[in-house]
Design brief:
By secondary structure, the chain is α+β, with helices and mostly antiparallel strands. Helix content is 25%, strand content 24%. The protein is globular, with a radius of gyration of 21 Å.
Length: 316
C-alpha cells in the first residue's frame, strides 16, 4: 500500500490561496453525538434511529447545515441541540420531541431553550470525511480547549464543515467567520482576536456572501492596514472592477480607502488543480479551478502627506 497523500499538503505545495473562500453557513443546527459514532453521511451515524436519520437528512436537503458535535478533553457537557445564529440550546425528554424541534427549526421556528451569549467555534475533526481533518483539526481543537476560557467561548469538534484541503477548518458563529490552515501555534493569538471582537487575519478566509475577488481584496487591505498602524475594521472597498467570467491570467485592480489613504490592490486569476479531500487524491480525481491570487498592494497617501515608506506589500 502506498503512502497516504494528504490533500492539505498538496494544496499548500500547489500554492493555492486560502483567501477568498470565506462563505460560512447562515444557519447551523448542532446535534450532540459521540465522535466515535460519526459516519459519512452524518445522518447515518451509529445508533441513529430511522426517524432521526430522516429528520437530519431532510434538514440538510433543505439547505440547513447540520453538524454533529462532541466535546472531548473539555470542561462541561453539550446540550442535545443547539441552534445558530440564534444561539439557543436545549435538551429534550425523548427522541420524538427532539425530532419535532429539528423539523420546526427547519421550517423557521426556533425551539424553546436557553440563550448562550458566548460565540461558538466549530473545529472540524471529521476523520470519517477526510484524514486531514483528523491530522490537523484535532491538534488545533485540543489547543483551543486547553487555552480558551469555557465561560467566554463555546468550543466543539464537529463533523464536516467544508474546506478539507485547508485543514484545520473552523467556523465562528454567530459572526459567520470562516478560518483555515489554523494551527495549534496560532490558537493563542486567534483567541485574543476573538476576545477583542476582531478578525484573526492570518487564517481568515474572507467575508461571507461576497464574490471571491472582493474577499481577497478586502483581506489584503486589512492586512496592509494592520501592518501600517491602521485599524483593519476601517478599510472600505471601492472602485470595484470587472468581476465576471474570469479567465486564466486575467488581471484586475480593486481600490480601498483607509481614512484619507487610498490603496490599489492588484490580483490575477490563476488555475489550480483542486482535490478537495484525500479520497479524491487517492482516486486521482479533481478539477482545475480558477482562483484569484494577490499580487501587491500600493498605497497612495493624500496630497501633501508623507508617502508610505514601505514598498508594495506582497501577499500570498
Amino acid at each position: 500500500m502506498g503512502k497516504h497523500v494528504f490533500c492539505t499538503d498538496l494544496c499548500r505545495e500547489r500554492g493555492e490561496p486560502l483567501e477568498g473562500l470565506g462563505d460560512a453557513p447562515q444557519r447551523i443546527l448542532m446535534l450532540a453525538w459521540p465522535r466515535g459514532k460519526w459516519r459519512t453521511p452524518r445522518w447515518e451515524s451509529v445508533d441513529m434511529s430511522p426517524a432521526l436519520t430522516e429528520a437530519l437528512h431532510d434538514a440538510a436537503q433543505k439547505g440547513l447545515h447540520v453538524a454533529l458535535v462532541d466535546k472531548v478533553e473539555a470542561a462541561g457537557n453539550l446540550p442535545t441541540l443547539h441552534a445558530l445564529p440564534e444561539n439557543v440550546f436545549a435538551d429534550f425528554p425523548d427522541e420524538a420531541d427532539l425530532i419535532c424541534a429539528i423539523r420546526a427549526y427547519v421550517a423557521g421556528t426556533v425551539f424553546t431553550g436557553t440563550e448562550d451569549a458566548r460565540p461558538t467555534i466549530l473545529c472540524c475533526t471529521d476523520s470519517r470525511r477526510d484524514a486531514c481533518c483528523a491530522r490537523y483539526g484535532f491538534s488545533t481543537y485540543k489547543a483551543l480547549t486547553a487555552q480558551a476560557d469555557p465561560t467566554r467561548v463555546n468550543i466543539v469538534q464537529a463533523t464536516h464543515i467544508g474546506g478539507c484541503r485547508f485543514a484545520a477548518s473552523l467556523v465562528v458563529m454567530p459572526a459567520r467567520q470562516r478560518y483555515g490552515r489554523m494551527t495549534a501555534e496560532q490558537v493563542p493569538a486567534f483567541l485574543v482576536a476573538l476576545e477583542q471582537g476582531s478578525l484573526y487575519l492570518p487564517a481568515y478566509k474572507g467575508r461571507t456572501n461576497q464574490p471571491e475577488p472582493l474577499q481577497v481584496a478586502e483581506l489584503a487591505a486589512m492586512r496592509w492596514a494592520e501592518n501600517h498602524g491602521y485599524a483593519p475594521a476601517d478599510v472600505i472597498l471601492d472602485a470595484v472592477g470587472p468581476l465576471d467570467d474570469p479567465a486564466e491570467g486575467m488581471e484586475i485592480t480593486l481600490g480601498a480607502a483607509i481614512g484619507a489613504t487610498r490603496l490599489s490592490i492588484n490580483m490575477h486569476a490563476q488555475s489550480f488543480r483542486v482535490q478537495g479531500n484525500c479520497s479524491t487524491v487517492a482516486q486521482d480525481g479533481g478539477d482545475d479551478v480558477l482562483r484569484w491570487c494577490m499580487d501587491d498592494v500600493h498605497a497612495h497617501p493624500p496630497a501633501g502627506a508623507q508617502p508610505v515608506t514601505n514598498a508594495p506589500q506582497q501577499l500570498s
